[in-house]
Design brief:
8% helix; mainly beta; globular; SH3 type barrels; seven-stranded antiparallel beta sheet
Length: 84
């Protein structure tokens, strides 16, 4: 399920990547919810070719579910400087 991030959120690299690192997912990015994480407070999202764990509450409060028409929009925010 695609979401557009309205306010930047913090993502943690998924369990299979070591060492784990924190990454800012900036406003304007489109992420796809891949599924639940081991810890029920998190969900796993796909951004480009990487997967991150984000707080489900952050995604719900700072993102918006996209309709099929809106999810066809470009998946990169313009002028990105940090994070993704």
């Amino acid at each position: 399920m695609p979401y557009r991030i309205d306010l930047a959120i913090l993502g943690l690299t998924s369990d299979n990547e070591a060492p784990q690192e924190a990454v800012t997912i900036p406003a304007g990015r489109i992420v796809d919810v891949v599924g639940p994480a081991k810890d029920r407070r998190f969900v796993v999202v796909g951004v480009d070719d990487r997967r991150f764990q984000v707080f489900a509450s952050d995604l719900a409060g700072r993102g918006k579910i996209l309709t099929p028409e809106a999810s066809a929009a470009p998946r990169r925010a313009p002028n990105r400087k940090r994070g993704l």
